[in-house]
Amino acid sequence: MKPFDANGVFGPNVNDGEVRRLAVRGAGITVFSGGVVLVIQVAATVILARLLTPMDFGVVTMVTTLSLLFVNFGLNGFTEVVLQWENINHSLTSNLFWINVGSGVVLTVVFAAAGSLMARFFHDPLVAHVAVGISATIFLTSLSVLHIALLKRAMRFSVTSANDILSRVFSFAVSIILAWRGWGYWALVAGVIVQPVAQAVGAWFLCPWLPGRPRRVPGTGSMVRFAMNVYGRFTVNYFSRNTDNLLVGWRFGSTSLGFYKKAYDLFALSANQLTAPITNVAVSALSRFDPRSLRYRQHLLSALSVTAFVGMALSAEFALVGKDLIRVLLGAGWEPSGQIFSFFAPGIGATVLYAAHGWIHLSIGRADRWLRWGFVEVVVTCLLFLLALPWGPAGFAVAWSTSLWALMIPAFWYAGKPIDFRIAPFLGAIWRYVAASLLAGFATSAFGRLYPWLFAVPRSAQEAASAIVLISSICAAFYLGAVVLLHWGLAPVRQIGRLMDEMTSLHKFRRPMPAAVPMPSNAGRLRKPLSRDSDKPLVSILIPAFNAEQWIAHTLRSALAQAWERKEIIVVDDGSTDKTLEIARRFEASGVRVVTQSNQGAAAARNMAFSLSRGEYIQWLDADDLLAPDKIARQIESLNGSLDKRVLLSSAFGFFRYRYYRAQFRPTALWEDLSPTEWLIRKLGHNIYMQTATWLVSRELTEAAGPWDTRLLADDDGEYFCRVLLASDIVRFVPESKVYYRAPWVGTLSYVGRSNRKIEAHWRSIQLHIAYVRRLEDSERVRAACLRYLQTCFGYFYPERPDIVKEVEQTANDLGGQLMPLQLPWKYSCVRRVFGWDMAKNLQLLLPKIKWWFVKSWDQALFRLRNRFFPIEL
User: What sign does the CA torsion over 139, 137, 152, 589 have?
Assistant: First the structure.
C-alpha cells in the first residue's frame, strides 16, 4: 500500500458509505486474528510452562513490567493521532516517525542504564542482565509504529493482523527452541526481542513508505500534543495495570510473581483479544461520524451490546472452569495460579466493557479528558491494591475485578459528557448480559451441587479437560437461555449471527477498496466527520403524544430507522397521565428531543413541535403510527434534486391494528399526482383523505399555511392540510413511500360521537373545507363536490343538533342544491322505526365499537402469538 500520492496527501481514504462494511469486516478480521493469537499464545504457554520454572517467568516479568511502558511510547499516541487526524500527509508523518525513533533511542539507553536500580528494588541481581537485553525492544518497536498506523488508517486490518500473527509465531518459536535447549529465562528474553524485529520487517514490506527528512510543518506540534495526551493516559493506565506486578514482585518474590503473572496473563489475554483489536476498528469507524449524530450513538451502542454479550459470557465461563483451565494449560505445579485466576475471572467482562469508554474519548478527539480520567483510575486502583496487600496475590486479583466494576459507570458518564451521551442507554445496552452472566453462573453452580464430581479437586489433566467441556456447555446453555429470556426473544442472538455472517462472508471481504478520495488541505485539525449529506435538507419529524405509552416506543423506533440521515426528531408530550413521557425520554440518548406541556390538545402540541424545529421539510407523525424505513428518502428522491419547495409530497398508507406487517393498502382517487384544486375536489366529492403522516411538507409551505387550528377537536388535520394545499403548486404522490396507520376507530362518526364540542368543531372544519376549495375554483364541479360532501356529513349532526342541521341545509342552498333526507342502513332503519332516532343513532355508534373491539383483540392476540415465537423488531 502506498499511503501518500504524488502531492504527499494521504490517498487510501474510505467513502462514508463504506465505513460500516469495512468496520464490520475489520472487526471480524481483528477478532479472528485475536483468537488465532490467543491460540498461539496459549499453545506456547503450555509448552514453555513445562520447560521453564515460575522463577524464570517471574524474573522476566519484573523487567517487562517496566519496559513495556517505554515500548508503548509511540505505539499508544502516534497510532491514535494518525487514525484521528483529519488531514495527515507525508511531511507530518515523517516528522512523527523521526520523533518516535529518536525517542526510542533515548529511552533504550535510559532503560538499559536503569537495570541495576531495578535489581536493587526487586532484590534480584538477575534483573540487571535481563534489563539490558529487553531494552532493545524499545528501539525496535519504534521502527514500525507509523507504518502500522498508516495501514490501520486505510482500514487494512487484514494485513496488520496477519503481520501481528506472524511476528508472534516467530517470537514463540524462538522462545520454545531456546527453552528446550536449556537457556532458561534468556529464552523468554530472546523471544521478546524477535517479535518487534519481525513486526518491523513485515510493516515496511506491507507499507513501503520512506519517511522524508524532518522539517518544520504546521500541525506537528498539535499532533505531538494530542499523542502525548494519549500516551499520558496510557502511562497513567499502565501504572494502574502494573502496580500489582511491582508490589507482588517486591513483597513476595519472583516465584510468587510467576504464579500471579500466569493467572493475570490468562485474564488479560481473554479480555485484550477483544478490546485491543476492536478499539482500533471502533475508533477508526466512530471518528467518521458526528459525535452527536444518531448514527454515532447507534454504532456505539451496537458495539457495546455485542461486546457485553461476549465479555459477560467469558466471565461466567472462566469463573467456573478457571482452576481446571490452568491445570490443563500449565500442568502440575501451577495450582496457585488456578486459585488466583478464579478471582480474576469475574472481571473479564468488566475489562472488556470498561475499555470501551476510551472509544468515545478518542473518536471525539478528547484525549485530554481521557488522560484526566486516567488519574482517577490509577488512584482508585492503587488504593485497592494497597488494601489487598495483606491477602497476597489472590487479594490483588479481587482488587482488580472490584476496581473495574466500580469505575465502569463513572467512566462512561465522564466520557459521554461532551456529547450528551448519558448513562441510561449504556446501561440499557449491557444490563441484560450482566444479569444473564450472574444467572448462568449461579445456575451452573447449583447444577454442580447435584453432581459434585463436576467441581471435584484435585484431578488429572484429562479429567480437568472433560470437566471444562461439560461445565462450559452447561453454562453456555444457561447463559443463552437467560439472554433470550431477558430480551423476550432471540433478537440479540440474531444480531450476533448477522455480525458473524458479515464478518465471515469472504465474498464481501474480496470487494475492491474504494477509490482514493482527496481530502481538503487543512492541516492541524482534529478529524471532523466529512459528511456527504451536508447539502441535503434537514427533515424534522414532529410527534405529538398523549397517553401513548403502548405505542410511542414503536413510533420512535420507526422514526429513528429512517434511511434519510439528516433528520431531527421532536416529541411534544401533551400532559400525558401514563408513562408516555418516561418512555419517550429513554430515546433522548439516541438524539430524540422530548419536551412536555400541559394538556392543550394535539393541534397545540404540533404547533409547539414546529416552533422547536429547524428542518427544511416537516414530517408530521402521530404517536401510534409507523413510517417505512425509506418513507422520507423516497419522497425527497422523487424531487430529482430540484427541491421545489412548492411541491407537496404524499405517500401510500395502509391500515393496521397491531400486525403492521399485515397492513392493508387500499388505493383511492387521491393516490396520484394532482393539482391542489383537483385534489380537494376528489377529497370532498368522495369523502376520502390522506393520513397525516403521508405528507412531507417543506418549511416554506408550512409557514404559508399557518399554525394548526386549536379550536378543531375533530378533522383538524383535514382542515390544516387544506391550507397547505392552498399554498402549494402540485401534489406529488410517491407510491413506493409508505406509512402504517394504526386506525383508532372504524370511521369518523365513531370518533366524533355525540360530543357537542366535537360536533361543533367538525362542522367548523366542514365549512372551512368548502371555503378553501371554492377559493381556488368556484365552478359547477366544485359546488357539486361540496354538496356530496355535505350529504355524507349530514349524519354527524342529525338529529342531535337541529341548529347545525339548519346551517347545513342553508349551505347546501347557497351551493345551488339541497340535501336528501338522511338514509340509514337497513339494520338501523328498523330500530329507528320502532325505537326512534336516538336509539338508532346510539346503536350506530355502539355496534361498530363492539365490532372493532373484537377485531382489535383478535389481531392483538395473533400479533403476540407470532411475536412470542418469531420476534419482530418494531
Answer: negative
796/798 Cα distance (integer angstroms): 6
Residue 206 has pLDDT above 50, yes or no: yes
- pLDDT value at position 6? 59
pTM to 2 decimal places: 0.44
Question: Are 545 and 578 a contacting pair, CB within 8 Å?
Answer: no
Q: How far apart are the first and last CA of the chain?
A: 44
Per residue in 113-150, pLDDT tens? 998 898 888 888 888 989 999 999 999 999 988 888 88
CA distance 434 to 428: 11
Q: Are 874 and 558 in contact (CB under 8 A)?
A: yes
How is residue 9 annotated by DSSP? B
CB crowding 682-709: b at 16 or more within 10 Å, else e: bbbbeeebbbbbbbbbbbebbebbebbb
Cα separation, 119 vs 201, whole angstroms = 33
Q: Residue 837: what pLDDT?
A: 62
> What pLDDT band is residue 829 in, cutting at 50, 70 and 90?
low
Task: Give the span between the Cα atoms of 394 and 392, in whole angstroms.
Answer: 6
**DSSP tag of 628:** -
Reference 363, options 300, 424, 277; nearest CA is 300
| Nearest CA-CA partner of 157 in 85, 87, 83, 106 | 83
Q: How many CA atoms lie within 13 A of 256 on its CB side?
A: 17
Q: How far apart are CA 13 and CA 294, in angstroms?
A: 23
- Residue 774 CA to residue 792 CA, distance in Å, equals 18
Residues with Cβ within 8 Å of residue 716, at least 6 apart in sequence: 602, 603, 708, 709, 761, 765
Give me the phi and psi of 228, to 5 degrees please.
Answer: -65, -35
568 with 593: CB under 8 angstroms? Answer: yes
